[in-house]
Amino acid sequence: MKKTTQLRNLITSSPLEFIMEAHNALSAKIVEEAGFKGIWGSGLSISAAMGVRDNNEASWTQVLEVLEFMSDATSIPILLDGDTGYGNFNNARRLVKKLEQRQIGGVCIEDKIFPKTNSFIKGEAQPLADIDEFCGKIKAMKDSQTDEDFMVVSRVEAFIAGWGLGEAMKRAEAYRQAGTDAILMHSKRSDISEIEAFIKEWAGRLPVVIVPTKYYSVPTQRFRELGIGLCIWANHNLRASIKAIKETTNQIFKEESLINIENHVTPLEEVFRLQGAEELTRAEKIYLNRSKNNWNSIILVRQSGAQPLLPEQMNQLKTAGISDIMKIGCLDAEEQLCDCKTNGGELSALFTVRDKINENTLISYGEIIYKPHVVKEVIEDTNDITIMVDPDFDDHTIGRNYVTAQVPYSKNLYSATVDFVQMTHELKNHTSHGEFIGVWKVSGKGAAVLREALDKLANRKDFNELTLGDLFNYLHTLHPIAVKYMKGSWLDLDSYTKIQSSGDTT
Ligand code: SPV
Ligand code: MG
Description:
single chain, eight-stranded parallel beta barrel, five-stranded mixed β-barrel
């Protein structure tokens, strides 16, 4: 539903409705998430957030800029506190045009003189607008709107300026006749007597809007009994934020430390959520070209011995343009390597991050390093699932993964891939064609097939003991796995350690 129509329904429907102040896009979003059906674009709060007075010191286009952010960030309507309309009828009707262009639900104008002062600052000293002039402004605004549901609310400041019920009634009725959609009757008393008197006399000629900032102790039920259409909680997000900012700032200043603060401020993740960071991640997957920037990486750390190699592997990935890197396996809560052995358990570790396996995911063991072109080779391969296999392998070490493929390595293959047949932990002299180097990728359909395979295998009783070899042996019954041969250009932890201890680091 259009925001104008939403606001019209809020104000004109018979149950009492509420809108809440916001002064920027962030607070507007929080207001919407809380469940409010509308937002009060408070002049006091917006100007205070800009560090200026509520005296039209911020220009109307500066206010519009803030409103545009607020409107973009939310789907509920904003009723702008348009002060006096920022000038005469001509300025006010241009304001309507600009508000409509930004999908603002409506505007409230008050019968004071530009530049205005907040109603709670020397209210009695504030001159009221000439009634005819103000009626001309209302008429010009209503005549200029192109969306029939756009709301013009007229705010009567007679009580604020020390006039009585007679003046309030005279003005409200004149504004009604000029075509306004609702009357905001303001009062600075701590009781509701002025509003009650007006409501009684007004007898429902148009919906009535109130701002109970000063008569906050009056029960809301009383507003319902009086048949009020809309209640504005006018400045409480601003005031709450001032308190929170002061407390936090003062404490950090005093303590010169964040230690007592961290658990009392909103977590960064919540800030990112409010900013909609996830939507951008999803959009990047759809719209950024399927280049290396689109890749994420999962590093499966099987032992704390990975320590010397892991940072280098991460650098290689970053150099290749992959910055979305997740480590799983032998890590403690702080993501530091810890003492465990994930010989079995490789699949259960992978299963815990199955949602991170997406259309371009590179997976590798943490205990290896490789040259940059290895990443390039694997991510540029066009198969859905590709594993990197070294045909020059060492037959002395245990805990390796040996691969049998349809075709053994030969120079003639050049960069062609061959089909995977089997992976084993034992070297089978006649059928093993190479050693899995620990780097593989899924792309396109491969991600869904991998997730499906993990889901199926997770039902097995021995799931916690299963390794990548078990995964590939099952996976290739669902979908072809491509073997890409590559000689050298990588080191595992054993070879790395041997090289280090012999002092040969080339
Ligand atoms: C505002 O929020 O700026 C208002 C309401 O005009 S009040 O400050 O209560 O007058
Ligand atoms: Mg105001």
